[in-house]
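Continuing the series of single-chain predictions for the mutant panel. This is the parent chain; the variants come on the following pages.
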Amino acid sequence: MLKYWCRTKEKCLKGTGLNYCQNAELQWIMVIEPSKEEIDALSKDFEINKKYFERYAKEIRAIKYSNTPLIFTLIDYYLDNDEIKKSRLLFAIFGNAIITVSHNGKGYFPKLFDDVCEKFEAEKGKHIEMLLYDFLDRDISENYDILTRIDDDIANLEVSALKYSEGKKIREIISLKRELNKMSRRIWSTAKIIFAIRKEVTPLRINTEGRMALDEIYENLIHQMDILGSQKESLIDALTIYETTVSNQLAIINNDLNTVMKRLTTLMLLLMVPSLIASIYGMNFKFIPELTSPYGFFEAIGVMLLVTILLYFYAKKKKWV
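Parent structure:
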């Protein structure tokens, strides 16, 4: 899908397809999930090496390819149906044109394109660096909504870390921590490119207003990195909470096991004395005390019961049962 906006001496034009302006004072072309025909047309009309269209979709961080024309790739984050997604954005900037190419984001970038174009049409006389600023400013501001969403996820993880869940939550915490590390590195690489655009020679005419605009974007990126750093610390705290929860759970299990073993030992002790007496009187000797007594059986049973009862009350006093 290709969308374009251009400003000529007479008016501003906006449309879709390959019938974009060839000789405009200012032009912005946005391509999402580019087709081979669109890549061929852009490569021919703007003399862009096709290798950039192949490389940008494989990058793992923001990277600058060329100064003249200014060509670079950013790793962009956005919310789509309340789900955090990322896209690689290829920028090609000439003296009077900006081309942005993305391999996904049909639900996000067209609306962003329309909003920026509407604002730019209302503010006459601005140059191409301000068009780039308006796009980056709106796009990077979206990161704050993403960071807020991550804050909510971390808060939920902290609450759930108080419950023992057999390792499920710790996997979620570690996975989110890894993603925050990746996001932090990508935002830092984006900030370096913004800083380089401000300092180096490019097709952009960076005046005082443009430098202030790029400085604002750079500061926002640094601020977002600080927020990510705080969020990573919060995740470390959540891990600590979960470790404490697991330790407490293991202590409870160990205590329950000790209680069970104590009760089993007490039960064995209660059964041991009657078993001992019964074993003694089961021996095949001719002379055994009380063997010929008419009350010997009842006396033996009485002794067994008496000793068992005494042992039971002793164990109860010691809180073994």
